[in-house]
Amino acid sequence: MLITCPYCGPRDVIEFTYQGDGNRERPDPASQNFEAWNAYVYDRLNPAGDHNEIWQHSGGCRAHLKVVRNTLTHEISSVAFARGDHGSAARHKAEDKA
Amino acid sequence: MSPRRADTGGRIDRLKTIRFTFDGTAYTGHAGDTLASALLAKGVTLYGRSFKYHRPRGLLTAGVEEPNALVTVLKGEVREPNIPATMVEIHDGLVAISQNRFPSLAWDINAVNQLGGKILSAGFYYKTFMGPVFGPLKGTRFWMFCEHFIRRAAGLGSAGSAKDPARYERMNAFCDVLVVGSGPAGLMATKAAADQGARVMLADLEPHFGGSANWSEETIDGAPAADWARRTVAQLAGRDNVRLLPRTTVWGYYDNNTLAALERVSDHKEHPGKGEPRHRYWAIRAKSVVLATGAFERPLIFPGNDRPGVMLAHAAERYANEFGVLPGERIALFTNNDSAYRAAVALKKAGAAVVAIADVRPELSPEMRKLAAEAEAEIFAGHAVVATEGGKALSGLKLQRFDLANGALIGDARSIHADCLLMSGGWSPTIHLASQAGAKAEWNAARQAFLPPKPTQSWIGAGAFTGSFSTAEAIAEGRAAGLAAAGGQSTPSMLPTVEAVPGDPDPAPVFEIRAKGKSFVDFQHDVTAEDVRLAHREGFVSVEHLKRYTTLGMATDQGKSSNVPGLAIMAEALGKPIPEVGTTRFRPPFAPVSIGSLAAERFGDLKPERLTPMHDWHLANGATMYSAGLWYRPMIYGLSGETVEQAYVREAKATRESAGIVDVSTLGKIAVQGPDAAAFLDRVYTNMFSTLAVGKARYGLMLREDGLAFDDGTTWRLGEQDFLMTTTTANAGKVMQHLEYFLDVIWPELKVHVTSVTDEWAGAAIGGPKARQILAACVTGTSVDNATLPFMGIVRGEISGVPVMICRLSFSGEMAFEVYSGAGHGTHVWKALVEAGKPFGLVTYGLEALGTMRIEKGHVTGAEIDGRTTARDLHLDWMLSKKKPFIGSAMMDREGLIASDRLELVGLIALDNRPLNGGAHIVEEVDEANPHDSIGHITACCYSPALGRHIALALVEGGKARHGTRAHVSDPLRNRFGPVEIVSNHFFDPDGSRMHG
Q1: pLDDT of residue B559
Q2: Which PANTHER family does its entry note (chain B) (predicted)?
Q3: Is the domain B299-424 a CATH 3.50.50.60 member?
Q4: Which of A62, B249, B400, B518, CA to CA, is 20 to 30 A from B706?
Q5: CA B861 to CA B409: how far, in whole Å?
Q6: Distance in angstroms (rounded) separating the CA atoms of residues A54 and B170
């Protein structure tokens, strides 16, 4: 499986660490809504098909990436930085390359 | 009569003689022979004993799909079992032995199993050994009794235990087009893609490229097909953009068009060439793949179809044309399709007598009748073979009239004398890689075969793989596939012209002849047609269940010859068409792969070694090193004659009496910097860091999101926006990732940067009543007195001309200081400290003494922060801030995490004054015969020189409430039972007067 890191280009999956389901919403830190916290900590989607995932390029630039991966085919349809505006300059660079 | 080498023919070098042994007997063969062809040429008919019934077995095939003739190849002490003799190229000095026979291949004692066929049917193990226990020898206990005998009787070759001295290699490769299979289709594809300028790799599992061209005796462009293949390969070999990989099995098709291949680099040589590995594992990333993997011929299923001398038709053709070997003198054929007639002609030409061709089809085309006449064979149209005769070699067979419409046998059987029976049950495209790549195979009723699915990855099929069985089609499809794979335009062009015997590619839909006797479907696992039907009668209707229950297709050949016939028999039993029964998905590997090649160079010490800057000094000064994760740390600095216990007791004692120094460079260190660094730490730690003054350190605790304890350590505020976080050695990486995750994913708005600086700093912790005096003697540029350097204070100064940072904190419980310097100066500073300490009796101490002193103080480490304990369990609830939320704060007060019966940290003192063991359980009452009702377990233990007792830290139910009570240690594995007293985890100096000074 290859993941195209916006900084580093297409890299083998062994360079990445799976960092969990990307659909989870962390409640407000002060929230006492136990249901919401429980869902955040324990509930994971397990779709057969496209899945939003967080991967860290731990063997590379160490950025966290939002990856949309098809769990049936391993096809990756989108990769973006997890921290929205993070490295927007770098993203332009990647687009220029493409 | 027996098989023999023909006087002429074949692509072997008759002038080159090669000597080898099989089962201890010396044989000779010729260059170009496989073990199978060389033995067959010497008249050997018996190659192995079958898996279950120990039936004698001969060669069924000439290639990788061989189920019967499995041998063990011996290289020195190393034995490699279960290699098809058809895939072993002979070389001088080759030593091979047969398998699954006792005492010898010819006289096998377990052949009596054949008489017990009814008992050894499908599900034998389940039925015999998994029943309820009625008597002393039923069910599981019966299995335990029988296991030894069964293990000896059943099975294949046995693996050796000698260390394999061979070298294995791994290669990563990238190409535009990978062509798998080098028959006419593969060669054309390679050529077409290479002509487009693409970087092409061509892999074939055989030693010689050419595939069927090597034995078909067809002509291409007027020349023998084999010559055409050789010429084409020679052209390709000279091109820079083509890489040829013979003896290379592409065995796995993974996502992103990544393929795995095994190259047998030097198995065919007596000694590998200089620098040559035995096998090479290829990870190939191909933009596009051409699958030209051909097809496997299927056996027909009839009684006695496994007798030595019964062989696939094309295999015989191959032995005759490629190796110049006749598998028999009087040959009969049994077929349901046209392809076998070509074999009849080939064997006739090679010098054998073809005595009969039995064809299940009543009507035969004039072309086939012509071929039969050419082979001078008598035709038995509408006939089937219903029995074979002979012992370890075929002596004859029985034919009976066969009704194609209903499979009925009519009239009397007639005997035919023959020493070799060739069979052809049609062809199954080798779709394994395409199936692995992700899609479901499609049944083609005309071809009576599963054809490759629509590609889900970037591959293109060509030739017999697609169900196009003629060479002319293979050439056309190969070229088109090569062009398309390289992104070229298909232009009309002159294709090589093929002269081949005619033939209808579609067989009659006959898989089995139902007559009395054992008809084998899976030769390697001894699964008969009756076993398949029995499985159906017993309710195994899904093909996946059938496979598991009968073990059909689960042997080392993975059902290459048996899958489709097995499915057909199952479909008939179910009364359903084959496509409705479905097929199993092929999984990697296509053929067995050496474990060595997967490991390649990655064996032995796989992990990098992390050494502290003072590592060499430790070694030079008598340290015994201990590996802690990737790190190497001094365990003890033993004096001569000292035991480990004596050494650490001495080191710890001396530290508490005067002073000791320990290397703490391995602690994780993370620079946390930026305008929001303090706010970030407040969220990460359970306690407050924004209130920490510059120049001070604080002990911090982190929880996981689920509220359990994660890691602890001190964090030093070096500047308003500049913190140095320390973590435990083991968790340095995890904490770093944890921080990065929160900064990147959860709180991207925080302006904080984290950097791992573990390797930038060397650290030495110096502690003991004399520690401050020692520092005062060597530190310049700052005072180290109580006013300048209070508890948890940080100062900067110099030691022996090197800048250092000193923080006064204590893990040992003594007045202690951590001295940090740049890693490059580590040894220099360390030596200066040791030198300055000499007059004060400073000792160096290792992990054992460090651990001893921390147990005496009741500090926690990874043994207690084990992913199951909470801050409260460890009596660290004083660190849980109520003024702010932090990671884990929302989840830490869940019912289960605050329950009163949780395991809590306590201290233990052994009342019998004997050593305790980590992992030992604590019980209220000892019952040595039946240990039960654990109330907790020991996490760390030592002999405490400060207390003069054997002590331990433990996690015990109820914890504090049990202080002052007695319990028992129960450790049946180490036979250690005895009374303990439960006490506070703070054994020594509980009010901390020593460290505050």
Answers
A1: 87
A2: AMINOMETHYLTRANSFERASE, AMINOMETHYLTRANSFERASE, MITOCHONDRIAL
A3: yes
A4: A62
A5: 79
A6: 30
Q: What class does CATH assign to B166-298+426-508+593-605?
A: alpha beta
Query: What tens digit of pLDDT does each residue of B229-270 get?
Result: 999 999 999 999 999 999 999 999 998 899 999 999 999 999
Nearest neighbour of B255 by CB, restricted to A1, A54, A63:
A1
How far does Cα B483 stand from its chain's mean position? 36
Query: Best residue in B170, B256, B895 to probe A by mutation, most A CBs within 10 Å?
Result: B256
Given CB atoms, is B606 within the 8 Å cutoff of chain A? no
Side-chain-side CA neighbours of residue B924 (13 Å): 5
Residue ranges of B 540-569 with Cβ closer than 8 A to chain A: none
Domain span including residue A19 = 2-97
Pairing of strands B761-767, B816-822: antiparallel
For residue A95, the distance in angstroms to the closest alpha carbon of chain B comes to 21
Minimal C-alpha gap between A2 and chain B (Å): 7
Q: Cα–Cα distance between B858 and B364 in angstroms, integer?
A: 92
Structure tokens at B949: 């007792």
pLDDT tops 70 at residue B121: no
| Residue of B457, B745, B882, B886 best to disrupt the A interface, most CBs of A under 10 A | B745
Is 0.95 topped by the overall pTM?
no
Backbone angles phi, psi at B522, to 5 degrees: -105, 105
* Tokens (6 digits) for A49: 């098909």
Query: Across the interface, do B256 and A34 touch by the CB < 8 Å criterion?
Result: no
Q: What is the pLDDT of residue B735?
A: 97
B287 CB within 8 Å of a chain A CB: no
CATH number of B668-756: 3.30.70.1400
